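Worked example (supplementary).
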Amino acid sequence: MIIAGRMSVLIVIVSLYILSYFFIRRVKEGDLPQIRKIEGLDAITEAVGRATEMGAPVLFTPGYCSRGLSGTGAPDIIVSMSVLEHCSEVAERMGAHLMTTICQPDVFLLAKDAYKTGLLKGGGVDTYDRVQKDVTFISSEQFSYVTGTLGLMEREKVAANIFIGPYAAEALMFGEQGSRLGAINIGGTASTWQLPFFIATCNYTIIGEEMYAMGAYLTKNPAQLGTIMAEDYSKLAMILILISGFILSNLGFPIIEQILGM
Amino acid sequence: MGEIKMRRKVPMVILSAAGVWIIIDYLISYPVIQQVSLTLRNWSVIIAGFTLMLGAISTSILHGKKIISKEQGWGYSSILMLVLLSTLIIGIVLTPTHPAYEFLYFNAFFPMTTTTYSLLCFFIASAAYRAFRTRNVDATILLVSAILVMLRNAPIGQVIWSGFPAIGDWVMLVPNLAGKRGIIIGVALGSIYTGIRVLSGYEKGLTGGGGE
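After joint prediction of all chains, the assembly is encoded as:
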């Protein structure tokens, strides 16, 4: 019944699902985990505050988002929208002007909703006009989006940039432009190809899996906290499987490989 | 309130059902499951096309308002609208395989894209100049490893000393690859759990309930 070679995938999916359900229930019962400090997230408030003092806007952009919600960057897009909501709320409370540029039309719809939710949480009114004005769909073509965003950064002289999402080649361009303008740059992506560019050009970088902890860190939502706990335990299990697989294979017992290849 | 909950619950149920179905299609080979899965994927392509239309309409409204009210930069908005409308009309009337459309694509759009992409080399030089400084231990390690990898890639490295390519290979294949794989494992788990939250209905932001 199960396609050959995919039984292990089913076992992993079911195991992870059970683990997440278990830990979400634990969190709902009051066993809250401690998430270590993520400097990049704490810096968002500092960056927005700096922009408010300078009277300059803040830019949030989630990157190319190749193929939008249908692509492999979909989890990163979901995370970036929760960060956008947080940035919108912080900007509204501090009186800063937050602008957003979007590359994919399906992400554009999510961004408008996230921006509006953040405004409302921050005590904002007249959200319709502000969402229409400040959430801009540039183009679904990568370098049209890049040039549009770079132009906006240059014209508006942004004081803070928040680059969180599934980035491609534009990571370096945005980070470098932000540095050239003297802005605070906060960058975060799960792409290992673009992380070095963010590390080189951004003041704060959110690396890989810290992205997925961001939602839990910001919202303290039980579902997100529970899955972070489950993720940590899954990682521990993976490390143990890797080590035992390595040892057993070298001793001539490729049991772990056979199980994983089922 | 009940209406709002229904508006969020129904899309969530559809989303979860469709997602679970696609996963089942990956695991089980059964004609009916495959057929429904193929239909769902075709629908997603069609919906993506409609969202693109939405993006084009949003762009047109934004720039149209700028042109009408003659805001700063309305000249650029005029050019954008002219190009957008002409490409749209040529594509619809003459089809995208017509020489006129291909002329626009290969002689206007494509060179501009490649030109923008080529700016990356200048951005890399500028970023490297700023980042590769011996401010602290981490920055020094970054600088040294960057030099070793550059000497591995540039032919002059081999000319200076035949050992540079081997050292550069070691840097790329051992510490760099190890770190990369560690990040990839963490990212993969994070992605899976995000997917589990979406399919279980815990990610309310996707269906307009982000404020709860």
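Two points are worth noting when inspecting this output. Chain B has a mean pLDDT of 88. Chain B touches chain A through 54 residues (CB under 8 Å).
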